[in-house]
């Protein structure tokens, strides 16, 4: 009798459910209570009201490579504004027959950035490659040597100028911010006071005011006949502004370090420079990767503010195209294109920061 009952008991025992399927996931995450169920229904309703019309406007009823007159009869988006004006949007007033030079410079920049993202390539050879690459990129843009025709910086613009301001600005602002953070933590009163005054003064004003000062006020203090390029002045304002914010973030990382780290370094006979380079800064900078990248992303987007001082960056060249009577009324398409470019830049920085943070945290 017992042997006859035993199989039926085994059949009643079922293995635990480890895969609930699509329906189970939806129930667990979207309809697990009345509030989530209401939010899910409202979200689905809004998506049905907005996504299909947008898809029809952007893809189905749109035109992609037609003359401006044909866009007047289109019921969807007029993406033709991009292929007809992309050279001016990207290169600005750079001479048409010489636009291969900034194109080659941008390709070199992207190649260097691509190789730099791999920590295995962080060697002296990479530093030398950057130095040589920056020299070649500057030579391609400016010209004047090796038979290259000279091009005034006033003709630089578009995506080239945006990348110039952002990449060089962020590259110079980061080490300056680290130095300011160390200066604010210094035991020397004069150095500490100067760093505090600088950081608090710069953080107390908006970037627009610094750009106006660099563009309008600063030239008034120069001797007669002495001028400094407007792009250099704008670049300096961006560097000084970003460095002040990075300094505060790095200072937070330095304060998070335990006192025992300093004592251990002192017991090993390390001086201040060795302690910071080998022990403190590597740990502190790893801690503040997320807020640091947030500041760098904000600084990358803030480079578009140079449009206010009449520099023809990516946003300014786009606005110039929209002032053409043939393309009036198609600002949505143009600004979506610009937004995609900014998104790709910001997303790339954010994605790389997550990757770097994960690699540096493997030992934890």
Question: Could you outline the blueprint of secondary structure elements for this entry?
Answer:
Blueprint: H1 2-12, H2 21-29, H3 34-60, H4 68-71, H5 81-91, H6 100-116, H7 124-142, H8 158-184, H9 189-203, H10 207-217, H11 230-255, H12 259-267, H13 272-287, H14 289-302, H15 314-322, H16 331-360
Helix pairs in contact: 5-8, 5-15, 6-7, 8-9, 8-11, 8-14, 8-15, 9-11, 10-11, 11-13, 11-14, 14-16, 15-16
Q: Explain this structure to me?
A:
With 364 residues, the chain is mainly α. The chain has a domain at 90-94 and 151-360: MetI-like (MetI-like fold). Helix content is 70%, strand content 0%. Helix 9 crosses helix 11 (230-255). It starts with a helix and ends with a helix. The mean pLDDT is 87.
How much of the residues is beta strand, in percent? under 5%
Give the assembly state of these chains. Answer: single chain
The CATH topology assignment of the domain at 90-94 and 151-360 is MetI-like fold
Low-confidence runs of at least 5 consecutive residues: none
Between the first and last Cα atoms, what is the distance in angstroms? 59 Å
CATH class of the domain at 90-94 and 151-360: Mainly Alpha
Quick one: how many beta strands? 0
Topology pattern, helix = H, strand = E: HHHHHHHHHHHHHHHH
User: What about the largest sheet?
Assistant: none
Give the count of helical stretches.
16
CATH A-level architecture of the domain at 90-94 and 151-360: Orthogonal Bundle
Structural class: mainly alpha
What is the fourth-level CATH superfamily of the domain at 90-94 and 151-360? MetI-like
Helix content: over 70%
* Rg result: 28 Å
- What sort of overall outline do the alpha carbons produce when their principal axes are compared? globular
């Amino acid at each position: 009798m017992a042997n006859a009952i035993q199989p039926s008991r085994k059949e009643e025992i079922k293995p635990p459910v480890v895969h609930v399927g699509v329906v189970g996931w939806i129930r667990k995450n979207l309809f697990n209570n009345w509030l989530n169920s209401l939010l899910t229904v409202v979200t689905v309703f809004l998506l049905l009201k907005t996504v299909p019309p947008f898809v029809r406007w952007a893809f189905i009823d749109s035109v992609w490579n037609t003359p401006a007159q044909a866009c007047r009869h289109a019921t969807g988006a007029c993406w033709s504004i991009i292929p007809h004006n992309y050279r001016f949007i990207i290169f600005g007033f750079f001479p048409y027959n010489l636009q291969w030079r900034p194109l080659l410079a941008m390709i070199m920049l992207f190649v260097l950035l691509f190789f730099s993202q791999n920590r295995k390539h962080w060697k002296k050879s990479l530093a030398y490659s950057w130095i040589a690459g920056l020299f070649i990129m500057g030579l391609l843009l400016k010209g004047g040597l090796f038979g290259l025709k000279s091009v005034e910086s006033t003709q630089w613009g578009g995506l080239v100028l945006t990348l110039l301001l952002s990449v060089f600005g962020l590259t110079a602002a980061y080490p300056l911010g680290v130095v300011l953070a160390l200066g604010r933590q210094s035991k020397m009163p004069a150095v500490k006071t100067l760093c505090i005054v600088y950081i608090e003064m710069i953080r107390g004003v908006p970037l627009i005011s610094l750009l106006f000062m660099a563009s309008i006020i600063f030239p008034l203090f120069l001797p007669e006949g002495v001028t400094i390029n407007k792009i250099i002045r704008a670049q300096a304002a961006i560097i000084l502004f970003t460095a002040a914010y990075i300094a505060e973030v790095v200072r937070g990382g330095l304060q998070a370090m335990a006192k025992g780290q300093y004592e251990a370094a002192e017991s090993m006979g390390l001086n201040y420079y060795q302690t910071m380079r080998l022990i403190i800064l590597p740990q502190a900078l790893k801690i503040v990767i997320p807020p640091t990248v947030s500041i760098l992303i904000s600084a990358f987007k803030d480079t578009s503010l140079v449009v206010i001082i009449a520099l023809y960056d990516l946003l300014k060249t786009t606005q110039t195209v929209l002032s053409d009577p043939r393309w009036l009324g198609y600002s949505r398409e143009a600004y979506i294109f610009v937004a995609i470019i900014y998104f790709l830049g910001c997303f790339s920085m954010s994605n790389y920061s997550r990757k770097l943070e994960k690699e540096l945290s493997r030992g934890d």
